[in-house]
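Let us work through a complete example step by step.
Step 1: write down the sequence.
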Amino acid sequence: MTRSARKLTYWERGLPHPLLTLVLIALWLALSNEFSIAVLLVGVVLGMVIPIYTANFWPDRPTIRSPLRAIGLIAIVVFDVVVANIQVAYLILFRRADRLRTRWIAVPLDLTSPEGITVLMATITLTPGTVSSDLSADGRTLLVHCLDCGSEEVMVGQIKQRYERRIGRILP
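Step 2: predict the structure and record it as tokens.
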């Protein structure tokens, strides 16, 4: 039975997305540059009101199959972002622009859920040197621009093995 087909409990109405509430509070505190009770209260109010007013856009919560794997994926992405920043800085500083091997690659997707595809696209875009640009109309192919790509097959394999496979184990 989907979340929208059954009667919601008090907690589900008041906190439709508890994790989003916590993220919004933390984000508000980080952006405020100071900590006080007033700043915390504004963060709590925003963290509770925004999910309530956006709950209609989230008819079903995506289920996370394995939170430990999600933490592992986050660690891999953070590591890759740091390494890719160093690689991109090296490319920009020490390689001439005409020697860069920029190219567009098409990544065939095995993921089918919109949440999984969105996480994959965000992961690719967060990693410096790559940008996910477009998703095919049927949702089966992702167009990615690479700043420096030696082999299309190798890059597609890296994206599928390093990210897509792991995301598929976390989200349906």
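Step 3: interpret the result. Residues 87 and 93 are 10 Å apart (CA to CA).
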